[in-house]
Amino acid sequence: MRQTRPVVNPNVQGKQYPATAPYLVGREKIREFAHAVKSVSPVNLDLFAAQAAGYTDLVAPPTFAVVIQERSLATVLADPDAAIDFSRVVHGDQRFTYVRPIVAGDELTSVLTVASVKSLGAHSMVTFETKIFDIDQQLVCTAFSTLVVRGDE
Amino acid sequence: MSIKFEELEVGQAIGSLEFLLTRDSLVRYAGASGDFNPIHYRDDIAAAVGLPGVLAHGMLTMGAAVQVAVNWVGDSGRIADYQVRFTKPVVVDPIEGAVLTVAGKIGAIDGESRTVRVDLAATFNETAVLGKAQAVVRF
């Protein structure tokens, strides 16, 4: 008989992980990311265009916050308490809610909370809420990510 | 900007884009994002875990799709909220790549907050690959 242990420890629901070390958003990193997601938006690529639009520096594309979210997620995936097997993970959904756009020069930290752990047959669905703060501790963006962790079929 | 908020209508098409995603695109995205999961560049590993081939990062599809809304509004900093569900994988052929087609239309208008919800339809091989792909644009 097959073991029916959950693929994610349900007790991690509600668990909050410590803030990540500050990540300094670089201008060239924004350009590199913008090219990778096929952006041609001048505010992502051209400093003068970004400044003309009222920003202090280049603006990061709308999905750039995933880079910050990933740093928090790495902490969870390394947490034996959560027991998430990365090789079984499929990305289910993703959302970014911005208070303001991320711009070059921002120093960002993130605090991740396990919002929910649900079982779907042999699989688990884990939703993470990652709050991203700037150096003044102001909220910049909240990222929501649901991972599906496949169990034994 | 030239778009007049008061003249926008629900259902209005705002544009579309076609992206050729190649293995080169995936390697570039891996480097830019830090997501080095080998299912996005190694055929042997993709096959070993039962996938039909090397897949595009879901976040690459998400990141490219929103460009339809970004190009329309002309400023990516005005995307206040963006969400998607990943419903189908995009398999990237080593030679041909994969063509991702994205079309946007206005899904809702909120006069009070002066925001517009853009609904994005992303397809690969005539199949929708994103569900509930919605970007909220500030005006």
% residues in beta strands of chain A: 25-35%
Walk across the major sheet of chain A and give the strand order. 1-3-4-5-2
Poorly predicted parts of chain A: none
Oligomeric organization of the protein chains: heterodimer
Shape, principal axes of CA atoms of chain A: elongated
Order of helices and strands of chain A: EHHHHEEEE
Q: Could you tell me which chain pair has the largest interface and how many residues each side has?
A: A-B, 37 and 34 residues
Give unreliable regions of chain B as ranges.
Answer: none
- Integer count of domains of chain B: 1
Percentage beta strand of chain B? 35-45%
Distance between the termini of chain A: 13 Å
CATH architecture of chain B: Roll
Largest sheet of chain B: 6 strands, antiparallel
The CATH topology of chain B is Thiol Ester Dehydrase, Chain A
The arrangement of helices and strands of chain B along the chain is: EHHHHEEEEE
Which bin fits the share of residues in helices of chain B? 10-25%
Number of helices of chain B: 4
Fourth CATH level, the homologous superfamily of chain B: Hotdog Thioesterase
Task: Provide an overview of this structure.
Chain A is built from 4 helices and 5 strands, in the order E-H-H-H-H-E-E-E-E. Chain A has helices at residues 27-36, 42-45, 47-52, 65-77; strands at 23-24, 89-98, 107-120, 123-133, 139-149. In chain A, a hairpin with a 2-residue loop joins strand 3 (107-120) and strand 4 (123-133). The longest helix of chain A has 13 residues, at 65-77. In chain A, 37% of the residues are buried. Chain B has a single domain (5-21, 58-138), classed as Thiol Ester Dehydrase, Chain A, CATH 3.10.129.10. Helix content of chain B is 23%, strand content 37%. Chain B has 4 helices and 6 strands; from the N terminus they run βααααβββββ. Chain B has helices spanning 23-33, 43-48, 58-65, 67-73, and strands spanning 13-21, 79-86, 98-110, 115-124, 127-128, 130-138. In chain B, strands 1, 2, 3, 4, 5 and 6 form a 6-stranded antiparallel beta sheet that branches. The model of chain B has no long low-confidence stretch (mean pLDDT 96). Chains A and B meet through helix 1, helix 2, helix 4 and strand 2 of A and helix 1, helix 3, helix 4 and strand 2 of B.
